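Much of our argument rests on the idea that a fold can be written as discrete symbols. Part of our work consisted of pairing the sequence of a single chain with a tokenised description of its backbone. The amino acid sequence and the backbone structure tokens for this protein are reproduced below.
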Amino acid sequence: MLRFLMPAALLAAAVPAHAALTAPERRMVQTVDAERERHIALLQKLVDQNSGSHNLAGVEAVGRMVRAELEPLGFQVRWIPLRETGRAGHLVATHPGRRGGKRLLLIGHLDTVFEPDSPFQKFVREGDRARGPGIEDDKGGDVVMIAALRAMQAAGTLKAANIEIVLTGDEEDTGKPVALARRDLIAAGKRADVALDFEGLAQENGQDMGSVARRSAGGWTLTVSARPAHSSGVFAPGVGSGAIYELARIVDTFRRELREDKLTYNVGLVGGGQTAALDEGQIRLAASGKTNITGATAVARGDLRAISQDQIDRTRAKMQAIVAQNLPGTRAVLSFDDDTYPPMPPTAGNLALLDRLNRVNGDMGLPAMGALDPLKRGAGDISWVAKDVDGLVGLGAASTGAHTDQETIDLPSISRQAKRAAILMSRLAAERR
């Protein structure tokens, strides 16, 4: 008999797909594949219900849709109304499992940036892609979460899993005071051993990426005042530089002198003249003045994003030092918003979770996922629990055009992400605390 050695490449190709998965894990994969159209139908239902952050009734309606998915899986679901914050509230669902098992916190949100007056309102499918308001951020993530939990139930791994879900109703525009608006999420983080965030999957050059860090997000306001005078005397003793020159000096010095790795600082709104006043929401500014009068007041609003609290504190101190070096005849005051989103630094625990996800990828025959640069991701709710629990971000679906009328989801990514999440959650939930 002729004998030969099979080349390594052919030998690898001969190994069945998902050969490293257990029988329950293969069942999860099969369940997700079998329910693909169900997931897409649910996504359409969620997207077609407007749930802009300020549409309180719409956010509540989406919460009821999600409740209808979770209760049949054995979750105890409650709605926490928070209308006193100016927002609808949050959905919290708990699934008690095996005593002593790891406690998982799943995070997502019900609201979108698209309010009822937006012309972008409906789900439109285009083959393997679909467009719609909030279709990825975060309704696609909510569907991935539900699909993964359904797969766990079908495979028998959900029964023993200790899971708490918090779906906020104001992630895109947090209610005030923020301490009340994030009270329940923070409390859930203190109870958890692992936090998994189902916002969108990041990709680079077509490759899926894992996220182990998110930067902070917070606003600042700069207000400059000066004595108005005839413009012919500008810069002269007794007149000085005027408020607008002082504001320009400050923000340009920010630009030149604050730079650090992972730090960004933007000026998003500016105005000055004889008068300059922000509206109540601090997103509009009314100014008036004449060319022959030096500026009496000037105002700027911006944001600051950092990777750690130390970087925030250091940068704020530098900003205040720059502001204090006033040009002649001017006075400047810099204040920081009190609703700053905290940072989620790339801790060793977070990196270990990404390693766990990559073991799932390897067992599924998928490429390993690198760690996304946090400069390429905005702030998010998981940051509120980052100081208390290890976390991983980006378990939702892949998309393009988030926060625009071209927000488009990659439909096959829903299934890919649901399989990853179901297997990862099942493995984590089976571990002892």
Remarks:
- Residues 219-336 form a domain with the Alpha-Beta Plaits fold (CATH 3.30.70.360).
- The chain has a mean pLDDT of 94.
- The radius of gyration is 25 Å.
